[in-house]
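does this look right to u?? aspartic acid version
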Amino acid sequence: MYFPSWLSQLYKGLSRPIRRTTQPIWGSLYRSLVQSSQRTNPEFNSFAVRTNTCGELRSSHLGQEVTLCGWIQYRRQNTFLVLRDFHGLVQVVIPQDESAASVKKILCEAPVESVVRVSGTVTSRPAGQENPKMPTGKIEIKVKTAELLNACKKLPFEIKDFMKKTEALRLQYRYLDLRSFQMQYNLRLRSQMVMKMREYLCNLHGFVDIETPTLFKRTPGGAKEFLVPSREPGKFYSLPQSPQQFKQLLMVGGLDRYFQVARCYRDEGSRPDRQPEFTQIDIEMSFVDQTGIQSLIEGLLQYSWPNDKDPVVVPFPTVTFTEALATYGTDKPDTRFGMKIIDISDVFRNTEIGFLQDALSKPHGTVKAICIPEGAKYLKRKDIESIRKFAADHFNQCSLLGKLRLECADLLETRGMVLRDPTLFSFLWVVDFPLFLPKEENPRELESAHHPFTAPHPSDIHLLYTEPKKARSQHYDLVLNGNEIGGGSIRIHNAELQRYILATLLKEDVKILSHLLQALDYGAPPHGGIALGLDRLICLVTGSPSIRDVIAFPKSFRGHDLMSNAPDSIPPEELKPYHIRVSWPTDSKAERAH
Ligand code: ASP
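got this back:
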């Protein structure tokens, strides 16, 4: 696909650290627009009552009569206004002569953040008054007419990126927060990346964009689902965790290359990188193997990657699950830096140090180490103490060394070492996961490591009938800078095997999935797929601190919409058609009485 140069320039300009000042951004926008050609530029002014955007005006527009719409960013001495729209800022000269008294009144009295429309001429600024930091800094608008489109009341916070505000306040007034340059940038970049993904999948590779239902039924295993009451007594829909079953059924239906920008729902506790509703780039295809899916995703990311970043280098490196755990202590290793875990058991085989001897005498007992480069130079005594405490607090977790590795990296960076290059994007495939893991609540039972539709590794099928715990799967995860950004698998397309895994190994009620099992019996093709977590991916690309910063209307940490106050209570009479009555916890009853 042709990627318009204005956009690549936009990416380039906007992806710098911009939290402190808006100036560099407008500067970059300036370059992006100057370098763009009319032919490839989106038409920002079509159908609108303006002739130009505020940010696009340059010396090349001198003498033109323009009409602009925007928000009043600030006013100086009743002589100048700075008008803002998504494209940038422009200086407007407030007329001082008697004949324009009404225009002056409008522009001088409208509070900051009021929205106005002005018409006038583009003129050059008087010599010496140019502002080189402002992309429109060589020109100004001599206003002839002005119209107050809507006045703004006193704001709960200033619309300036560098003004600190709490996240709760930002979420409560999200529509104002969206006016910030950072949010504008994040959402526009997200839209452009998705656009390019659609191009790549549909136009270059023949995928079909298909919507699947969001009112569905319970799926066995996996995350907790949100329930939606129905008017049939005791019957509920579930919101899907993902379109997994539908995309497999589409394969049975012969739609052999499916994709969707899919909304998924999981009723799990909030974490910084999780939201109860989130978006996946969901993909499934028939007649494909693991390497086929991996190459597809590498191409997709390469194609949709913002041009200002270092190009994505493919193929991505691959490690097995076992290697990842042994070398990094986690199945989502951050490979931007070394500090790998090394087995030094042999060095201590004949040691007389008691606790090491003790460790080595246990079955599978090992002694492992991480070499911290220049640790002695960078780390202070209290850092070593905090590492020791961290290790003690997490003792007996096998993931301890992996956590310790990241903890040490954080410490080194706070002491000034540059360990993780902020411009580096380090992709990694993790493959050969076990098919099953012991259930957390009952380790004697098994649960799927990915989901129950994942096919076993071809060389481990026999283990399903003898030692299922040892069977590896055809499940692959994509990791970026230590974050899981995608996961998928080759699926089971044989009904008998699927039934055996569900009923015998996972002890699930197969009736819930009878439609899928039946479909597999009617000539289901071999198939596989993957889903990329779009919010997480964009969060990493934009360098945002939280996925909430790349979602227009996210939920709070506790899963609430702080703007509208969802979830909300429903009067009992409105619950009647659903045959539902709320059983209030005793203390909340007391609370409600107040
Ligand atoms: N549906 C899976 C998930 O959401 C991804 C896949 O296997 O394609 O994790």
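The longest strand covers residues 65-76. idk if thats expected tbh
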